[in-house]
From TrEMBL:
InterPro entries: DNA_methylase_N6_adenine_CS (IPR002052), PPIase_dom_sf (IPR046357), RNA_MeTrfase_RsmD (IPR004398), SAM-dependent_MTases_sf (IPR029063), Trigger_fact/SurA_dom_sf (IPR027304). Keywords: Methyltransferase, Signal, Transferase. This is Peptidylprolyl isomerase. Coiled coil: none annotated. CDD domains: AdoMet_MTases. It comes from Hevea brasiliensis (Para rubber tree). PANTHER family: METHYLTRANSFERASE. GO terms for molecular function: methyltransferase activity; nucleic acid binding; peptidyl-prolyl cis-trans isomerase activity. GO terms for biological process: rRNA methylation. It comes from the Eukaryota.
């Protein structure tokens, strides 16, 4: 302890000797032996005032000090998880931040701080913390990233089997081992019904992660966790479950059982959306006028409502809606409030639907289990990506695609990103990105039938205005009219020469720029040539595939 105090005193003396003012530099906080001084706070305050241009950012030193403490905690967590940040990652993050804030356009970090009289280390530390936080988010879900051959086989076996499927809605909280002291508090607050966003904010400095998981099948979990979830009552908290690097706590919000055969069925429905305040009156009128499939459109029109017709796969719908339809009569008008879908509807809207027909699909075959592609997350979660017999490609199954996007969270924000998809096949990766908030996707494939399926999915999801398709050979890739933040490259396994060709093409034709992230999918064990302008970030093996996550470098 005396030696620690002596070091702190020495630190203060050294800092004070370099301070131009007469006042001494004071230690404001200490995080795991690292001192945060008044000089650090002053330098960050000046940087915040420049970048964020608000009086609050420039004057609230208590808030600035807290942000420095948070950054130190993140650095400790990153060190424990083995996370590092490269120079190119800092420059890429700086470019994004400068662009959003409208400052230092086209400048490097060093040029920006010199021109504006800022402290280089303070600005760099802030940028590093932004990158580290994104990587920590991905690391927290690391137990779910490693998909082995047996995982994939179990996934297909589960889909093939008969009987009922348990579908769950949950809240989930991850608490790192290092933050074990707050585990009891998190459990208590989940049991008391404290909102997830409040839990996340309250324990942010402990690197606690919280989110919702909706429409998850119990079969996706390890056997002992699956048993606990199947036996649990709604509202019950399960855990803590010890996993890699921490504890997982689950709170069951909803649970339904639906026949697997019914999940594979298709339904024809008609729908109108009404304000939640009007839905009871509209439903009463609909039923009073004997609304059914034939009369639904006319009655809706007379009430000033627009009805739409939809052909859907039952397995693509929300869990409670699946259950409601499994017990519905043909021609019966239903309210989604009965399925628990109305209370949280955007803009206070509730759907009234009528079930017109249903085509029983039976239990999925092994081929169907492997061939049914659905979006794994985001606003289109659970919606189908069409494949069919005309698809000349090998789309990645859902557990692989979800794992890929979990890895990407450490390297690039998907929301607002521009995405290109070379050898797009079904377009599954692009639709995953659009569902997660990507701004635009450009899909390229030489096979026209593939792109026709892409268009079908785009029309089904209503995202056609956010994407373009191009039918061409990668050797004839045109000069891009825009650069892309994220690229998926998935050439045929047997044509390894296309790896080098396509990676060079997206650079020479300016589809990618320095800092773009490129995801390359190849056959496991394949010998391929990677151009020099690519830096490997990480690689993952999934069943028979190997996926390389790379970053494009500048021409310097």
């Amino acid at each position: 302890m005396l030696r620690y105090l002596a070091c702190c005193c020495a630190l203060c003396v050294v800092l004070a000797s370099h301070c131009c003012s007469a006042s001494s530099v004071r230690i404001k906080a200490v995080v795991d032996g690292k001192a945060i001084t008044s000089l650090d706070v002053s330098r960050r305050t000046k940087a915040n005032a420049f970048f964020y241009r608000t009086a609050h950012a420039g004057s609230d030193q208590a808030e600035v000090l807290q942000s420095l403490v948070d950054e130190s905690v993140l650095e400790l967590e990153a060190k424990e998880l083995g996370i590092s940040v490269g120079k190119h990652e800092l420059e890429a993050e700086a470019s994004k931040m400068f662009s959003v804030l409208g400052v230092c356009d086209g400048l490097s970090i060093g040029e920006c701080v010199v021109q504006n009289g800022l402290d280089h280390k303070s600005v760099e530390d802030h940028l590093r913390s932004r990158v580290v936080w994104s990587k920590i988010l991905a690391t927290r879900v690391a137990p779910f990233l490693a998909v082995s051959d047996s995982d994939v086989e179990n996934y297909v076996d589960e889909a093939r089997s008969t009987g009922l499927e348990t579908v769950l809605d949950m809240e989930q909280v991850f608490v790192p081992f290092k933050a074990g002291s707050v585990l009891d508090s998190v459990l208590s607050e989940l049991n008391k019904g404290v909102a997830l966003d409040k839990i996340a904010a309250r324990y942010r400095e402990h690197a606690v992660y919280a989110d919702h998981a909706v429409g998850v099948t119990a079969s996706a979990f390890l056997p002992d966790v699956k048993v606990s979830l199947v036996r649990a009552n709604v509202g019950q908290v399960i855990g803590p479950i010890r996993i890699d690097r921490g504890y997982l706590v689950l709170k069951l919000l909803n649970k339904v059982k639906v026949s697997k055969g019914f999940l594979n069925s298709s339904a024809s429905i008609k729908r109108v959306s009404v304000a939640s305040s009007d839905h009871e009156n509209v439903l009463r009128v609909m039923k009073g006028r004997g609304a059914n499939c034939e009369s639904f459109d006319g009655i809706a029109k007379n009430m000033g409502l627009d009805a739409t017709s939809l052909d859907v796969r039952i397995g693509d719908l929300a869990s409670k809606l699946q259950f409601m339809l499994s017990n519905a009569e043909l021609g019966e008008v239903l309210s989604t409030t009965a399925a628990g879908e109305g209370s949280g509807a955007e803009g206070g809207k509730i759907d009234l639907i009528v079930l017109c027909s249903i085509s029983r699909g039976g239990d999925p075959t092994a081929e169907e289990a492997a061939g049914v592609i659905r979006v794994t997350a985001g606003v289109h979660r659970g919606r189908r990506v069409f494949t069919g017999n005309t698809l000349k490609a090998r789309p990645a199954i859902s557990v692989v695609r979800e794992s890929v996007f979990n890895v990407l969270r450490a390297h690039i924000p998907i929301e607002g990103a521009r995405v290109c998809d070379i050898f797009c096949g079904s377009g599954a990766f692009s639709f995953e990105a659009l569902s997660r908030g990507a701004e635009h996707a450009s899909l390229v494939d030489i096979h026209l039938p593939n792109l026709q399926l892409v268009r079908r999915t785009a029309d089904s999801l209503g995202v056609g205005h956010r994407m373009t398709v191009l039918c061409c050979d990668v050797n004839k890739l045109p000069l891009a009219d825009r650069s892309y933040d994220l690229a998926f490259v998935d050439p045929p396994y047997e044509e390894t020469s296309l790896v080098d060709i396509s990676l060079n093409a997206i650079l020479s034709m300016r589809w990618c720029q320095a800092g773009s992230v490129v995801v390359l999918r190849i056959k496991k064990g394949a010998k391929v040539s990677i151009p020099d302008r690519y830096e490997l970030l990480t690689r993952k093996s999934y069943c028979g595939s190997e996926i390389l996550f790379m970053c494009t470098l500048s021409n310097d």
